[in-house]
Amino acid sequence: MADAKYALAPSTEPPPSYEVTTSIPVKLSESKTQLPRAPLPLDLPLLVSLRGRRVILASASPRRRQLLAQIGLNNLIIVPSTVPESLPKTLSPFEYVLQTANQKAMNVYSAQIDSPDGEPALVIAADTIVVSLRGQILEKPRSEADHIAMLKGLRDSMSHRVYTAVVVMAPLASARDPGYALESTVEETTVKFAKDVSDEMILSYVRTREGADKAGGYGGIGAILVDRIEGSFDNVVGLPLRPTLSLIEKVTRQDDDIVDEFAEAEEEES
After folding, report:
1. Which of 50, 136, 163, 172 is 20 to 30 A distant from 252 in Cα terms?
2. 3-class DSSP state for residue 166?
3. 179-209: b (≥16 Cβ within 10 Å) or e
4. Closest alpha carbon to 67 in 206, 239, 236, 196
5. Taking Cα atoms as reference points, which of 158, 145, 152 lies closest to residue 198?
């Protein structure tokens, strides 16, 4: 029997298409209630040095943009990668997600390095995949039926894993071959759906269309399906912030490291 607690109200209109997901404008309330003030950006010298420079996010994901804004990278230039995501699913999840993120970063970096607006100070690329308990790399749902089946499968399995690969690139002022610094990482989070999630709740979530453009078919308010996670939450959202900040620090310091190497070499020769 259907769980009455999650029964859907009858609807005379079909849900939005999986081919085109549109957003409906919402008018703000005219009440005088003030929204909470956003926190000030992190005052780290590394992030301060990037303000006003061309920092490119090689992704159209609003979630990744929001996460980077939370640490103070607000004026990002959005340049989605044009490289097709066609790697074979026979690769291990680690190899698949890392190679995909690398391709995205190289695609955007190569297109922007000779831009009339100037070379980028930084290119940040990422790729996120959901992997079932059996090791299957899950795509974005192709239809409502596929979406429902995907979420039921994740609920009925013991757990699944979310991998996010992050690649950060920056040009080297020294022009040492290959002319850029590149650092990468892959983060893994284990997610377990709640066993008491009903079919009606899954259908209700699917019809919000929030998960229609996400690998694994959920995100955001899809948290209502989750019992617990082991690992980083922002990794599940699509960009682990602490590792990303570490990669930014590594690539921006490589020019300094090269200068130090040359200075040491000159001292040894003299």
Report:
1. 163
2. strand
3. ebbbbbbbbbbebbbeeebbeebbbebbbeb
4. 239
5. 152
Question: Could you tell me if 187 and 167 are in contact, meaning their C-beta atoms sit under 8 angstroms apart?
Answer: no
The string of DSSP letters for 56-119 reads EE----HHHHHHHHHTT--S-EE----S-----TTS-HHHHHHHHHHHHHHHHHHHHTT-TT--
What would the pLDDT profile of 126-146 be if each residue is shown by its tens digit? 999 999 999 999 988 999 999
Give the residue carrying structure tokens 């850029």: 180
Torsion of CA 130, 240, 63, 14, to 10 degrees: 20
Q: If you average pLDDT over residues 50-56, what whole number do you get?
A: 92
In the chain, the percentage of residues whose pLDDT exceeds 70 is 80
Which residues are paired to 171 by β-bridges?
180
Which tens digit of pLDDT belongs to each residue from 142-160?
999 999 999 999 999 989 9
What token pair was written down for 249? 């620090």
Q: Are 238 and 128 in contact (CB under 8 A)?
A: yes
* Cβ(155)–Cβ(202) below 8 Å: yes
Catalytic residues: 127
Q: Tokens standing for 232?
A: 């980083």
d(CA 33, CA 14): 35
Q: How far apart are CA 67 and CA 63, in angstroms?
A: 6
User: What crossing angle do the helices spanning 62-70 and 241-269 adopt, rounded to 10°?
Assistant: 60
Smallest Cα–Cα separation from 104: which of 118, 124, 90, 87?
124
Using the 8-state DSSP alphabet, how is residue 196 labeled? T
Rounded Cα distance between 19 and 25, Å, is 19
Tokens 């950006």, residue located: 41
